[in-house]
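thoughts on both lines:
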Amino acid sequence: MADVHELQSLLGSGEELTIVCHNNPDPDCLASALALGRLAAAAGIDERRILYSGEITHQQNRAFVNLLDVELKPFDPELVVDRSERSLLAFVDHSVPGANNAVPEGTAVDIVIDHHPAEDVQARYVDHREGAGATATILAEYVRDAGLDVDATLATALLFAIRRETLGFLRGVTAAEYEAGGFLHGHANDDLLAKLSTPSVSGATVDAIADAIDNRSVTGSVLLTHVGRTSERDALPQAADYLVTLEGVQTAIVFGIIEDTIQLSGRSTDARINVGTVLNEAFGDVGSAGGHREMAGGEIPLGIFADYTSDDDQLVAIVEQVVRARLLAELKLSEEDGGE
């Protein structure tokens, strides 16, 4: 559970704080980083920075950064590896160096606050709650317990992150999310929340989601589909969120080829299936994959597939065959199990 005094003591021992986001950070990660930065400021740390790697492409994530004026800097390994004793390193919404982040494996971490499943989480201060619905929930507790002045920007960021991570308090939500929401509600800016909730969608994203709909196949209550090769990374989770609501579908897994990787996104409402475990067991030996029971993601290097053919259609067909076979095997399904 949150121990704000222990965290404040550690922050008070530092002169600067580097907060590293996970790759392609989402609102939960960004809001948590913003809140930890405020806690560090209250503890007397004047030099603070938030680093990210990958891209911020999802329209909600871009709107979040722009409307809330979150100051981000591209990941710089020198700020992480070659730091002084009083330069603290923190992870929010992820926990292990080299896993969904650009930090070299084995790097010593000072602070980890996360809600994603992970093993062997090590840091001087760890608050790792797999049962929490959002990392922003944990940070909201710290902000409340520290007695910080909560302005509209911070409250809006944390409240929106909790709402987005739990799909409007419907997915993976616990009592802690409702308590945090009650605490933040009176401080948040309703107009900003509305703008963040309804950002514009690019035509390329709509096209990618349309491809996922066209390419779908359903086996039992499991829907598998792909978007082919795309630059719209965030179309995958958006497609998965939409397709899992299809009548008769309880699990939806979407994949696509993005640059030199195969990206996957999964959603499930089936109590018998932990989609994070499914993706990890199916692809953990060839890439990184995992997440929660209801939602998960993965990334697999194209590797030898990239050298096999320069024809995108042929490449997609090969990748689809391999990905589909692995998923069906892990789910213990066969093509004869019925469906469309």
Q: What stands out?
A: The mean pLDDT is 91. DSSP finds 13 helices and twelve strands in the chain. The longest helix spans residues 312-330. The chain has two domains: 4-197, 203-337.
